[in-house]
């Protein structure tokens, strides 16, 4: 990257750009998780990392751009956990149960174990950052894969259009996927995954 | 009422207590809907109605107590609309569709047409006022009635425990019933009632 023509000429040969970006993201994650995302400015961040504000702006055009990377990392972590859980079973109805359970468990753990990072996720969901939209689409893709597989195996009915089934199951799980809704659904978290996946499975019976 | 022994002796014979209460509630509804619930104090309210603060406190122990009555009135209005819609049909599956549609339509109209009154509903939902809890239980009761009726008519399956079915359908509709969730679900309002009631009806097929 540092060999490429850049609109930000680097005065001397230093670490690779992606290394500096990673370094900023790591420090920002640490800083935000301690002091919160909303209240922190890029100046605060620069001071705490020991970089100049101008240097940070060479790598990220705004605080949100840093937040987006952190958010993407968080959502990837949830997704990795979901995929790891799904890989343990091959039976589509069971995959659906596992999907519901792991979405609720991973989202809760990540969004609420660390209340300060929750702020970033909440901003992302409120302002519909690309990271959130991409994540929601990927979850719908996973859902679509499970339904498709279950239909082929004869486990699920095939009369209802696939798109409708994916969309409505996504609507059912959305309150436990979106951090803005999740914060108001916590009292139901113990029962919801089981009850909702049972309902969905009854609706899918051939 | 004014004949009864009261802990607040009235100095001269005036209007009945319930009349004064209604008068305060009407004026407060008007005032809150213009200036918001959160920012208004009982002093502001007293000034605007032309009563003394002490006089208002004779009838309501707090601002929340007034808010509770307003909230109850709002929720009753939603419920009346839901019941009026339900009375137009006798077929349980159709009743379920109507229930979903009318919950979404009435909640949206009442909570969002008047953003300032929405604040009261949001406080009520956040702080779990009695008015909200009672409303949620009444909606569950309506739901239970429809499921029970559909089971007796042979329209719905009877294997799943009735309580589980009621609870899970309530969970499915909750994002459109609870104002805190509804504000984050608006983009789905056009499709959600139809998609979700179709899903629920598929799950109920005998």
From TrEMBL, chains A, B:
Residue ranges of the HTH tetR-type domain?
A: 18-78
Pfam families per the UniProt record, alphabetical:
TetR_C_27, TetR_N
Keyword list, A-Z: DNA-binding
Report the GO molecular function annotations.
Answer: DNA binding
Residue ranges annotated as coiled coil are none
Q: Which residues bind DNA?
A: 41-60
Name of this protein: TetR/AcrR family transcriptional regulator
């Amino acid at each position: 990257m540092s060999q490429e023509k850049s609109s930000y000429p680097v005065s001397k040969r230093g670490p690779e750009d992606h290394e500096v970006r990673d370094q900023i993201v790591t420090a920002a994650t640490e800083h935000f998780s301690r002091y919160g995302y909303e209240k922190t400015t890029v100046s605060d961040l620069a001071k705490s990392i020991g970089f100049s504000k101008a240097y940070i702006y060479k790598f990220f055009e705004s605080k949100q751009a840093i937040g987006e990377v952190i958010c993407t990392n968080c959502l990837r972590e949830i997704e990795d956990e979901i995929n790891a859980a799904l890989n343990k079973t091959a039976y589509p109805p069971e995959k659906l149960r596992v999907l519901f359970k792991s979405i609720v468990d991973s989202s809760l753990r990540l969004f609420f174990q660390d209340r300060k990072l929750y702020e970033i996720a909440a901003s992302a969901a409120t302002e519909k950052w690309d990271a959130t939209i991409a994540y929601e689409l990927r979850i719908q893709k996973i859902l679509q894969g499970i339904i498709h597989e279950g239909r082929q195996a004869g486990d699920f009915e095939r009369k209802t259009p696939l798109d409708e089934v994916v969309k409505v199951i996504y609507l059912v799980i959305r309150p436990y996927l979106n951090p803005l809704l999740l914060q108001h659904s916590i009292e139901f978290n113990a029962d919801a995954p089981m009850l909702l996946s049972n309902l969905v499975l009854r609706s899918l019976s051939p």
